Amino acid sequence: MKTLITTLSILLITFISKAQQSNKTLQVNGVSRSYIQYLPTGFDPQNESLSLVLVMHGLGGTNSQMVAMGMNNLADTARVMVIYPQGMLNAYGQNSWNNGTLLSSTANDLGLFNQLIDSAILNYNIDPTRVYATGFSMGSIMSYHLACELNDRIAAVGCMSGTMATIDIASCVPTYATPVIHFHGTADATVPYNSGAFPSLSLVPETIDFWKGVHNCANTSDSLRLADLATDGFTVDRFRYDNCTPASSLELWRINGAAHDFMYQPANDIMEMFEIWWFFRKWQHSNPAVAGINETATIIRSIYPNPASQSIQVESKQNASYQLLDHLGNVLVKGALVIGQNELPVSNLAAGIYHLEVGGKLFKIVKL
Questions:
Q1: Among the three residues 280, 308, 334, which one is the final residue of a domain in this structure?
Q2: Position 242 confidence tier, pLDDT thresholds 50, 70, 90
Q3: Whole domain around residue 145: which residue ranges?
Q4: pLDDT tens for residues 146-185?
Q5: CA 18 to CA 9: how far, in whole Å?
Q6: In terms of Cα–Cα distance, which of 110, 122, 258 is closest to 184?
């Protein structure tokens, strides 16, 4: 498979610091899920709030293959935390994602991504307005699925060689207009570009038309033929659609003559992962759901002042237990809240980021 060969070739020249990259697991409804995590050099969660990029592999692929596709090379200077989750087996024994297609797994992937985002916010002070999703092929299809199902958490998606599931096109109603950048080869026989769609998958024009509707874009676009510098036999046309809301929030990069391949330099004219990041960095979610805020709000009416130097006032609707956690998730204080006002002293804490856990849900507390 050409994509796998390309990925392995990049891997040979990719330097990964063991101190920055680690293999991790978490439990999702009793199922152990694995992922690779990369943190930029010199990251200090007490004084820095990173962006988060979720990177997903294709059908039958692995997260370690995706590590080699370039996002780590940006992370140190762009100040990005990168997470590469591993999909579960579908009915055909292929690593997959539960994204509404006929080759989906049955795994609780939405639970996985919610927990990954929650954990990143809790443990690494991730900026909840800057959480992004990208992937190749089946990972691209899953990125679109997250834009629909976790619309209140994903700030933008970057989709490579994978279109929307037809069930998502039929049922997705985003309240937040997710910015989208899409890359696709016109000779792709695995996920066809504009004819011969496979069951449960849309074609590229159908996917782009859906997001035109979400963003109220015109059918016209600012089109650009990129300089044809590589001797790969491909040309690249970029379409940035007109009159979108917000402006420039929908882009299609058509790779003329390319099959189901990942584009990277110097073999090709573009490095897809770099272009995706340059698109991502323009966008912030306007109203992101932070870890557990909706459920916690049913118990907690207010927390103030925040930031605080001496104490915080927590107004609770019911009697409930609480824990105060540091930025690594260590429990510092346990106690009980009563109905009404509760004063929690914080004067003995060092300045930094903490979290108040109530009913298994979290609120970020800043100690001055």
A1: 280
A2: very high
A3: 2-280
A4: 999 999 999 999 999 999 999 999 989 999 999 999 999 9
A5: 20
A6: 258
User: Any idea what DSSP says for residue 200?
Assistant: T
Residue 2 has pLDDT above 70, yes or no: no
Structural domain count of the chain? 2
- Is the backbone peptide bond immediately before 128 cis, with ω within 30 degrees of 0? no
Domain boundary, last residue among 280, 302, 327: 280
Same domain, 262 and 336: no
How many residues would you count in the chain? Answer: 368
Q: Average pLDDT of the chain? A: 89
Other C-beta atoms lying within 10 Å of the C-beta of residue 67 = 22
35: nearest Cα among 20, 24, 22:
24
* Cα–Cα distance, 197 to 295 (Å, whole number): 40
What pLDDT was estimated at residue 326?
86
pLDDT given at position 298: 56
Q: Are 252 and 83 in contact (CB under 8 A)?
A: no
**Residues 192 and 82 reside in one and the same domain:** yes
Token look-up 């927590």 returns: 314
Q: What is the reported pTM?
A: 0.77
Q: What does the alpha-carbon distance between residue 350 and residue 332 come to, in Å, rounded to a whole number?
A: 12
pLDDT digits (tens, 9 = 90+) for 51-83: 999 999 999 999 999 999 999 999 999 999 999
> Does position 11 have pLDDT exceeding 70, yes or no?
no
Is position 94 within any domain?
yes
Q: Are 162 and 136 in contact (CB under 8 A)?
A: yes
Closest CA to 112 of 102, 100, 97, 90: 97
In a 3-state reduction of DSSP, which class is residue 127?
Answer: coil
**Token pair for 299:** 């118990």
Q: Indicate which CATH number applies to the domain containing 140.
A: 3.40.50.1820
In a domain, residue 286? The reply is: no
DSSP string computed for 43-82: --TTT---EEEEEE--TT--HHHHHTTSHHHHHHHHTEEE
Same domain, 239 and 360: no
Please classify residue 355 by burial: count the beta carbons closer than 10 Å to its beta carbon, then call 0-12 exposed, 13-18 middle and 19+ buried.
buried
